[in-house]
Each structure stands twice: as structure tokens, then as C-alpha cells.
Amino acid sequence: MNYCSHCGQPLISRIPEGDNRHRFVCDHCDRIHYQNPRIVAGTIPVWEGRILMCRRAIQPRHGYWTLPAGFMENGETTVEAARRETLEEALAGVRIEGLYTIMHVTHIDQVHMFFRASLLDGEFGAGEESLEVRLFAPDDLPWDEMAFPTVQESLSHFIEDSKKEAFPVRVTDIQRRLGQ
Ligand SMILES: [Zn+2]
Fold first, then answer.
1. Are the CB atoms for 177 and 153 separated by under 8 Å?
2. What's the CA-to-centroid distance between 19 and ligand 1, angstroms?
3. How does pLDDT run across 157-179, given as a tens digit for each residue?
4. Residue 20 C-alpha to ligand 1 middle, in angstroms?
5. Which parts of the sequence belong to the Nudix hydrolase domain (predicted)?
6. Beta strand extents in 1-105 (DSSP E only)
7. How much distance in Å is there from the Cα of 176 to the middle of ligand 1?
8. Integer Cα distance of 118 and 43 in angstroms
């Protein structure tokens, strides 16, 4: 941040009185601009034992496979965000079955949350941010072409848990990028 979103004056970075970390502070209007992690919400949509994935039509990771997911909007719940992203990216209506993964991606200040979900009617298609959307059998998932570590991690837990038909919530930290 360079300028105050309230008064337009330049911001400086310093530790405000009573705080213990650097913040962007406006000395003109005395506002402190806090920055906090952003939440990405998505689904693992299943239809007849297969998993719906989207091939990305946008950067980053253009051409790689992902689960439908995206940044929460103000005024919606995590469930609503996950359902909306699935409709936008995969043109698929889903019933949310339950929270499955909460992953802290601290190197980019994000929290990713994936919900287990079922397609309502088996209908889907490529939304504007997808090149292609298709169902994958568990044995055919494109592990070498996954877009993000949180997608890979959610799916690998999901495949293992599917064998036991028990899906405990997984809370993990993701400290890496794919290919590193
Ligand atoms: Zn200001």
C-alpha cells in the first residue's frame, strides 16, 4: 500500500503505539490500515464416484487442473463462497456435504477451505475461468498437472479417506509451492 484509502495521503510503515508489528499508518487522518489473510473457499464436487475438476483458463497456473475455488466476497459465508465458485467455474450446482480441509498458506497470507460436495444433477460445463471441466475417476486424477498444493493436498486426503468412507476435517499448513 502506498496511499491512504481514506484521505489519499502517503502511508508510512511503522509499529503503532500499543501494537507489536509494522502496519501501514496514515499520519494525516490517523487511520491504521490492517492487512489480514484472505480466505479461498472451494469444493471437491463428486458425481457417481468421480471428481469434478477445472482446467484453468487464467493465470496463475494457466492450463493446470484445479478444484473450483476462489476468494470469498464480503457479505457471504464460506459455504456460499464455495458454492458460488463451483457454479462460476464449473457451471455446476452442488450440495455441500461438509467442511473437509482448512489449509494455512502463510507464505502468501491465505487460508484455503475446501468442502466436500455432491453435484445436484450431474450437469456441468466450462465457466469463463476454465478451459475445460471434466470428471475424473479416483485412479485417473491428473496429479502431475495440479494447479496448487492445496488442491493436491485436499485430493490426496480425499482419495485416502474415501477408501474408509470417513472424512475427518484436516487442518494443515502448506509451506511450499508445487515443483519446489
Ligand atoms: Zn489518511
1. no
2. 19
3. 999 999 999 999 999 999 876 55
4. 21
5. 36-159
6. 12-14, 23-25, 32-33, 38-47, 50-56, 65-66, 69-71, 94-105
7. 36
8. 9
List, for residues 65-77, the tens digit of each pLDDT value.
Answer: 999 999 999 999 9
Q: Which domains, from first to last, does the chain contain?
A: 1-35 (2.20.70.10), 38-173 (3.90.79.10)
Per cent of the chain over pLDDT 70 is 97
Instruction: Tell me the pLDDT tens digit for each residue of 81-100.
Output: 999 999 999 999 999 999 99
Q: What is the Å distance from ligand 1's center to 25 Cα? A: 8
Grid cell 470417513 is found at 166
Distance CA 42, CA 13 (A): 34
> What is the CA(72)–ligand 1 centre distance, in A?
27
